[in-house]
Design a protein that fits this description.
By secondary structure, the chain is α+β, with helices and mostly antiparallel strands. The chain contains eight helices and 24 strands. The strands form four sheets. The protein has a seven-stranded mixed beta sheet with strand order 2-3-4-1-5-6-7, sandwiched between helices. The relative contact order is 0.12.
Length: 466
């Protein structure tokens, strides 16, 4: 749905390429791609120098529209989002995962699941509907044993995915760059045409809605002499046309759209789900590496928020009130302190209205997020007897160390990114939805009194009888 009404139909599907460092994600994106964008294939000098992807890279693959996506001539465009696999760059991956419709989890067939592959799987479960597993580097397996090694790893992966929403997803074996990075370009990739067919079979019509406020996640920004500054990114909601005014909240400025391109093709209109470059009147691109642009005055800058949340099952350890987490909201990651609370015990089983917070109700303060792991030892026996109840829904008050700009009802992820990156542990702690943001700096006086959270208190003592 790229250009004006006269253009042939182009359906854009965003495919995230995620996985552990050195699993061959960039080589796979390169092998699949027909068109590179300005951000593709480790173009950043630091990426080339270090040999790893430091930022989201984008490129695209165009193919005939498969029959399941409707009649008539047209093209299916897969926009490939190459997410970095380096552990310290998890916040960039979270940013990337929010704009993908279909995920490719790339696994080094000689190593199997690794720590970051597991974290990517967790992010995929939160932010994505469909997945294809790609077993890469099959050229490293001795030819005589290759097939049995692929079958063994396929079974392992099926077992790993058994209890996830991706149970039964396709698993494809490839060698994106036989012989490794130094091999001559004449070496043809193995299994890539089969992978393209699988991607086509998994493609679906993502729900796209051009109405509502325009919101775009910008991931690269650069200037073109004599033309202006170009911001490239993916449209998260609404639509944009030539001549529209867009706001850059981080810079507190509004700019006019002068021209637009999708993968080097000029367009006059773009909508939710499209990847686009927008040229506006000149500003210093260094001021906006990554961030959001939107319909003027449609985003909020908030100092605190109420979220509904769920603990990520692979996170080891308790989620405690007053603890600090790295909070990813929209495309920003900031430090924040949490306070957990639940419904009153009598309301634990009550149906909770989704994506709405009721200020009329009373809530119970919790020292930590209530989960099976957090039940105290004296309650464990009751739990075995089936008496301990957990609430259907829990919430948290997040207080940010610095204000964040984000849309309402956006995805929130809490992580412990300061955990040792070499420790074999999941650093993603919880995920949720932002229900209510607090724009007033003095929210502790103006807003928090409306929140009715109480503590249960009990006193212990001895009664002395005369």
């Amino acid at each position: 749905m790229a250009a004006g009404p006269a253009a042939p139909r182009v359906l854009n599907v965003n495919v995230g390429v995620l996985g552990h460092i050195d699993s061959g994600k960039t080589a796979l994106a390169r092998a699949l791609s027909t068109t590179g964008s300005t951000a593709a294939f480790d173009r950043a000098p630091q990426s080339r120098a270090r040999g790893i992807t430091l930022d989201l890279g984008f490129s695209c693959l165009r193919t005939a529209l498969p029959p399941q996506l409707g009649p008539g001539p047209g093209e299916l465009q897969f926009t490939l989002v190459d997410c970095p696999g380096h552990a310290s760059l998890i916040r960039t991956i979270i940013g990337g995962a929010q704009i993908i419709d279909l995920m490719m989890l790339v696994i080094d067939v000689t190593k199997g699941m690794q720590t970051q592959s597991a974290e990517c799987l967790v992010i995929g479960q939160i932010a994505c509907q469909k997945m294809v597993v790609v077993l890469n580097k099959i050229d490293l397996l001795p030819e005589g044993k290759r097939q049995s090694a692929i079958e063994k790893m396929t079974k392992k992966m099926q077992k790993t995915l058994e209890n996830t929403k991706f149970c039964g997803c396709p698993i494809v074996a490839v060698a994106a760059k036989p012989g490794g990075p130094e091999a001559p370009e004449s070496e043809n990739p193995l299994g890539v045409s089969e992978l393209i067919e699988v991607l086509k079979s998994q493609a679906y019509l993502p729900s796209r809605d051009p109405s509502g406020h325009f919101l775009m996640a910008v991931d690269h920004c650069f200037s073109i002499k004599g033309q202006g500054t170009v911001m490239t990114g993916t449209i998260l909601s609404g639509s944009v046309s030539l001549g529209d005014n867009v706001e850059i909240p981080a810079l507190k400025v509004t700019k006019k759209v002068k021209s637009m391109q999708m993968f080097h093709t000029p367009v006059t209109y773009a909508m939710q789900g499209d990847r686009v470059g927008i040229c506006v009147t000149q500003f210093d691109p260094k001021l906006l590496e990554r961030g959001l642009i939107c319909t003027p005055e449609s985003l909020h800058t908030i100092h605190a928020a109420i979220i509904s949340l769920k603990k990520i099952q692979y996170f080891r350890g308790a989620l405690q009130t007053k603890a600090k987490f790295h909070i990813t909201v929209g495309h920003e990651t900031v430090m924040g302190r949490v306070m957990f609370f639940s419904p009153a015990p009598a309301d634990f089983n009550e149906e909770i209205q989704e994506n709405v917070f009721n200020f009329e109700k009373d809530y119970l303060y919790q020292e930590e997020y209530l989960s099976k792991d957090s039940i105290s030892s004296e309650n464990k026996e009751n739990d075995q007897a089936g008496e301990v109840q957990l609430p259907r829904q829990q919430w948290a008050l997040l207080e940010f160390e610095k204000p964040v700009t984000c849309p309402k009802l956006c995805l929130v992820i809490g992580s412990k990114l300061d955990t040792d990156i070499h420790a074999n542990t999941c650093r993603l702690a919880f995920h949720g939805v932002l229900l209510q943001g607090m724009e007033d700096k003095n929210y502790t006086e103006t807003f928090l009194p409306k929140l009715k959270v109480y503590k249960l208190k009990h006193k212990e003592g001895q009664v002395e009888r005369p």
